[in-house]
Each structure stands twice: as C-alpha cells, then as structure tokens.
Write a structure and sequence with these properties.
255 residues, alpha/beta, Rossmann fold, six-stranded mixed beta sheet, globular
C-alpha cells in the first residue's frame, strides 16, 4: 500500500491579514510556525508512518512549514524535491487585496466564484501590480508561457496532476517497497487539486473542500492509486474547526 501525507502550510502573515496571497512569497506568523511544529509532532506520533521523501512548492511558507514539521518529527534529513507546480493558485489581480474588502466591492457571490469556483479565474495580474514574479530567480528557467497571470482551480489541476504522475507517484512506489511514506507540503489549492484527482471528486464537490493549515492529512492508496483510507492526523474535531475557520475568512472585518 502507498502512503501519502499532505500538509498545508501554517498560517502566513497574509493569512493573518486576510489577504489573497497566491504566488506572493510571504513567511509564516509565529502562530503558523507553532502549527507546523504541532503538525510535525502528529507525524512523529503516528504509528507505522515512515516518511522517506519530501515534496514542496517553491514558496517560503510551504518550505518553512516542512522544515519545522520535519524537525519536530526528527526527519530533517529527508531528501527534498521542490517544484513550482505545487505552488498556490495564482490569484491574479486579487493578490494583495483584503478578502472582506473584495466582498464589499464586488459582492459575496462574485467573491465566492473567485475563491472557490472551479473554472472562474480572477482578473489577470495588471501591468502595474507590484506582485509580478517574472523576475523572481526561482522561475528564471521556466518558459514565460508557463507563468500564470491568473488561475482558477481547473488550471491548478492541469499543472499539479502531471507533477503528481511524473514525480510523486514514482517516489510513492519506491518508498512503499520499504514501507515508507511521502510527505507533500503545499497550499490550499494545490492540495485541493491533488485530492480532487485522487478522490475523484466532481467539479462542484471540490469547491466545498476547505483545507486547514498545519494539520497533516494521511492517504493510504492501493497500487492502482485507489484511495483505501484517508483522514487527518490527530483530533478530527480540531481539523473540522480549522477548516471551518478557513471558510469564514471572507467575513473577517477589515479594520
């Protein structure tokens, strides 16, 4: 059986400010660091979980979450693979904007389409948007055509699933020979894309999935990649409460 663990980064500075983050490279808050360490303690306390390989996005919040979690789990030595295809969804011109303010300006229905609609991308990044990444050295070897200016979840699925098939699945198969597991530290939408693919969720159903920060989600897969078992580590009520808090972000006050 193949053993996969998905963990969304801990609370970031822009999560705390209720801002659309996307590809903007922000760090963890002290609370986010604590979430990552707590996630690592859950990893260490799980019987039969033998992490062998780590995959992360190229964004600091996911990288640091993995580092802190693995340090807490005593696995800082794991080999690491990083790829832009595990990045968060690019939120286009919404990046840097407060979610509650966007709701006030455009209405709750439009905000929900941009946040959770499967095939509705936000407005593309404008030429004067300060969060352009074209000159960021981490993307310098990419074809400029691969750099998004906005994305919907459908776009994230299109870039994440090929990485799953070409990089993560081979590691899962290789580690499973020795009873090992693979850890993926990523983001709400790249994890949502992976779970849509693995759990065969419909386009409508995946829009209702909220991914809590810092809580590992373990999936046990058959050799044909069918999901045999899947659940959050630790207290299920805590995971449900954390997911509900994510869903309420757009209702936070702006002052």
């Amino acid at each position: 059986m193949l053993d996969l663990v998905l963990i969304r980064h801990g609370q970031s500075t822009w999560n705390a400010e209720n801002l659309f983050t996307g590809w903007v490279d922000v760090d963890l808050t002290p609370a986010g660091e604590a979430e990552a360490r707590a996630g690592g303690e859950l990893l260490a306390a799980t019987d039969g979980l033998d992490l062998r390989v780590l995959h992360t996005s190229l964004l600091t919040r996911a990288i640091r979450t993995a580092e802190l979690a693995l340090a807490a789990a005593g696995r800082s030595w794991l080999p690491v693979r990083r790829d832009w295809r595990l990045n968060e969804r690019h939120y286009g011109d919404l990046q840097g904007k407060n979610k509650a303010q966007v709701k006030q300006e455009f209405g709750a229905e439009q905000l929900q389409l941009w946040r959770r609609g499967y095939d509705t991308p936000p407005p593309p990044l404008s030429p004067d948007n300060p969060w352009e990444v074209a000159d960021d050295p981490r993307y310098r070897d990419l074809d400029p055509a691969d750099l998004p200016r906005t994305e919907c979840l459908k776009d994230v699925v299109a870039r994440t699933v090929p990485y799953w098939e070409s990089a993560i699945v081979p590691d899962l198969r290789a580690t499973a020979v020795h009873g090992g597991a693979v850890l993926v530290a990523a983001h709400g939408n790249s994890i949502r894309a992976l779970r849509k693919h693995l759990e065969q969720r419909s386009d409508d159903a995946i829009t209702e999935l909220e991914v809590p920060t810092g809580i590992p989600f373990r999936m046990r897969l058959d050799d044909d990649l069918t999901v045999r078992a899947a659940d959050y580590l630790g207290d299920p009520e805590a995971a449900a409460a954390a997911a509900a808090a994510v869903a309420r972000q757009a209702d936070q006050p702006t002052d």
